[in-house]
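User: What would this chain look like folded?
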Amino acid sequence: MATTQGIAAGSVNAEVICVGTEILLGDILNTNSQFLALELAKLGIPHYYQTVVGDNPERMAEVIRAACDRAQILIFTGGLGPTPDDLTTEVIAQVFDTPLEERPEVLADITKKYSRRGRSMALSNRKQALLPVGAAVLPNPLGTAPGMIWEPRPNCLIFTFPGVPREMEQMWWETTVPYLRSHGFADSLIHSRMLRFWGIAESTLAEKVDRFLSLQNPTVAPYASQGEIRLRVSARAASEAEAYALIEPVAEELQAIAGADYFGSDADTLASVVGRLLSQAGQTLAVAESCTGGGLGHLLTTVAGSSVYFKGGIISYDNAVKMELLGVSPTALESLGAVSGTVAEQMAQGVRSRLKTDWGLSITGIAGPGGGTETKPVGLVYIGLASPAGVESHAFQFGVHQQRDFIRWLSACTALDLLRRCLMTIQ
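Assistant: Here's the prediction, encoded as structure tokens.
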């Protein structure tokens, strides 16, 4: 179906171009590109390139020309402000040899927004009312910088957005998505399920599910992030229901293959899954932490409603706290050291008894970078788990060369995973 000036639906791909030297310097995190990638996928619009370019007109022009040769939809974020280094609109107009014109309706909107804030508009803000001749305004309901929708030549459709994420996102949902749908660019869509795994290596999981990795629709792709392994199952279809009809059978097979290493999907976290299992069992949890310094409790309390099953914790960083509040044996501390299975067990038993819960979960270890020895290197962590049925401890070695925060993160997540696996056996 023809859309605009000969761009045919189903034959387009998009390119995301994020403008700003601050992104290149690492001063800000470029969340806009991730947002746009996810949104384009939902609409079923392929995109093969993302570019970040600084506030340099020559390099910006070079990027625009290259993008026009390989994509039909160009999506810009950033560079729409009133300062001299905000050059996106100006450079785009120059590349297509089109003059800028001041739009009275845009200037009136900017003036009104400043007036509502009790401020006068600076002269520099008039720059934001300049758009190429022939471009349509892409309204910005939250900020002063409008974007544009412009097809400067056949087979090249341009959208511009400010770099402020909340402004860009609102403009995308309110105007851009309806425009793309109404012009036939989003005649199919892509939906995904993210399957989440803990306690298995990426390579091991990939070997187990190898035959699924070559599927075409749905597709299966593995990812690894901060100790967690993910499998994204994506399907292209005409509707959400059709996409999920393709996804679900594959997702179920993958879960069956992974067994207990699979812990949840999409927005699930280890903490939310543990919370759900505790709630279903009508049971409660308390934690005792040494090297994680409250990190385990933090993960648990990020889940809304966690007070139903999580009663609290004790950060027993010093050995005196381990003895006085948790009842850890001075003899065990002296003979075995704080980083030992026995101390982890006594910590778990102590916090369970002290806070009167069904489960007690403890962590003690060496997060580094110092403090390690030949027999107890950095990265050695013991996790204790106490329940009405008894107490147990497990040793983990998270690596002597890992960073301190990563060891602490792995410790907290592994503790949750250990509890999750135990809770699954009593369901």
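The chain has three domains: 14-182, 191-265, 270-425. If you want, I can go into more detail on any region.
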